[in-house]
């Protein structure tokens, strides 16, 4: 595969991954108000586990699953990440089905900057001046919403916090994304199956209860979880990390457009101020990432020149 073809396929995979994640509010909304967000959550876990088991089998990944399960530190870390991703999924589904798509958008805008801060606090990563300024401006935007307008964006903070801590744990594990997510869904699976059984006993489960279209959508929640992950992994292999980082803004932007223009959620003055601060922080963060990547490219080119000259 040529470099240009690899780059083109990487861009297509990134557009597919972040685009599908961006459409999730519409997908969950399409399932309908008659379905509890908690049933959507448990169906998402169950069918994602089924699809991931098939995917692991297809790629011959059971050796990696066994290797991860054999390490106590990895098992405990994946247990923690399972809890975090479960809370993140549940919060997001509840937010979407309860008319809070705008806050989910804010949470995923905050996430890249929170990752920078968590890396600084827990991994000893050095904050460059523009990164520090970006984090401070983003934090100021959230504080303005809380202090000046009396609104605590707890959904956004919970989504960003859970996913940020999830990323922090996964960053330190030598486990690929497919293996890790399969392990996490397996951890959540007994809870999901028990919860679903209780729903049937209590009479408010809806799967296979009369609507084939709804059944397909509920089962499809597993595919809506797995397919973007596979596309993201393909994009990450083919594109620079900084390039993938730029595509990640697609998802919260699509959530913002969906919340305001499709679902009709109000965009208040508090939202405007907070989003403006977050966007400013992200612009600074993106600029810093681009400059750092450019410096590395220049340094790499300069270092390669003497070797090229000496080989002639």
Q: Could you give a quick summary of the protein structure above?
A:
This protein has 312 residues and is mainly α. Helix content is 83%, strand content 0%.
Overall description:
It is a single chain. The protein has 312 residues and is an all-alpha fold. The protein is built from 13 helices and no strands. It has helices spanning 3-22, 24-31, 37-58, 62-69, 72-97, 101-122, 129-147, 154-171, 177-202, 212-238, 241-247, 250-262, 269-310. The protein is globular. The model has no long low-confidence stretch (mean pLDDT 90).
Portion in strands:
under 5%
Please compute the radius of gyration using only Cα atoms. 21 Å
Quaternary organisation of the protein chains: single chain
Note poorly predicted spans.
none
Largest sheet: none
Number of helices: 13
| Total count of strands | 0
Order of helices and strands: HHHHHHHHHHHHH
The first-to-last residue Cα distance is 29 Å
Mean of residue pLDDT values: 90
Choose one word for the global shape: globular
- Helix content estimate: over 70%
Structural class, please?
Answer: mainly alpha
Describe this protein with a few key phrases:
312 residues, mainly alpha, 83% helix, globular
How are the SSEs placed, and which strands pair?
Elements: H1 3-22, H2 24-31, H3 37-58, H4 62-69, H5 72-97, H6 101-122, H7 129-147, H8 154-171, H9 177-202, H10 212-238, H11 241-247, H12 250-262, H13 269-310
Helix pairs in contact: 1-10, 1-12, 2-10, 3-5, 3-9, 3-10, 4-9, 5-8, 5-9, 6-7, 6-8, 6-12, 6-13, 7-13
């Amino acid at each position: 595969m040529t470099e240009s073809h690899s780059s083109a396929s990487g861009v297509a995979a990134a557009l597919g991954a972040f685009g599908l994640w961006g459409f999730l509010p519409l997908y969950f909304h399409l399932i309908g108000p008659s379905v509890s967000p908690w049933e959507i959550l448990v169906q998402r876990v169950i069918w994602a586990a089924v699809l991931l088991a098939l995917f692991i089998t297809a790629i011959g990944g059971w050796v990696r699953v066994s290797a991860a399960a054999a390490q106590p530190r990895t098992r405990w870390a994946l247990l923690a990440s399972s809890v975090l991703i479960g809370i993140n999924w549940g919060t997001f589904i509840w937010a979407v089905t309860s008319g809070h798509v705008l806050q989910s958008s804010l949470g995923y805008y905050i996430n890249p900057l929170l990752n920078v801060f968590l890396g600084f606090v827990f991994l000893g990563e050095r904050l460059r001046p523009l990164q520090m300024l970006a984090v401070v401006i983003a934090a100021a935007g959230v504080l303005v919403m809380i202090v000046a307008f009396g609104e605590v964006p707890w959904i956004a903070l919970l989504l960003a916090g859970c996913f940020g801590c999830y990323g922090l744990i996964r960053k330190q594990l030598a486990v690929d994304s497919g293996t890790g997510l399969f392990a996490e869904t397996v951890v959540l699976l007994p809870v999901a199956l028990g919860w679903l059984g209780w729903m049937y006993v209590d009479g408010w489960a809806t799967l296979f209860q009369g609507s084939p279209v709804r059944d397909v959508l509920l089962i499809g929640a597993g595919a809506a979880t797995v397919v973007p992950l596979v596309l993201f992994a393909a994009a990450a292999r083919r594109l620079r990390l900084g390039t993938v980082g730029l595509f990640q803004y697609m998802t919260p932007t699509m959530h913002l457009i969906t919340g305001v223009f499709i679902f009709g959620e109000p965009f208040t003055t508090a939202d405007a101020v907070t989003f403006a601060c977050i966007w400013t922080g992200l612009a600074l963060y993106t600029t810093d990432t681009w400059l750092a990547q450019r410096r590395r490219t220049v340094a790499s080119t300069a270092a390669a020149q003497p070797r090229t000259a000496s080989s002639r």
